[in-house]
Amino acid sequence: MIQPFAGTGEKKKVLLALTAVVRGERRTQFLVATGVVIHQNRTMQSCPHLSAVTRANFDRPQNTPDGCEECLQMGDQWVHLRLCLECGHVGCCDSSKNKHATKHFHRSKHPVIRSIEPGEQWLWCYVDEAGAEM
Question: Could you tell me which CATH class the domain 2-133 is placed in?
């Protein structure tokens, strides 16, 4: 995707675009390439955790690709799965009875998760209660 960059009107290739709703306000951030340097505009400053997400974080491998780590150990079931972008922990969502993704955040303080459901590209920051779409 080609976008005008940060008020300059100059067009750059966008590597990653995040659209977030932060406290009811829709914001977009673009990561763009200029040679070998990647620049970020500052439209998502209210959530530095989401602003810091890179493509490598988003695409990180799952520790347990077969499902929720704790539910698999317990022999239990889950509704949807979430991936911790800091360590690769796979936990079940808050619609699941065990809520292991949220419990992982409270234990580890790793702020950002993403959905690993097919077709979903969103992220969530527990600290700032902000979401973004990749």
Answer: alpha beta
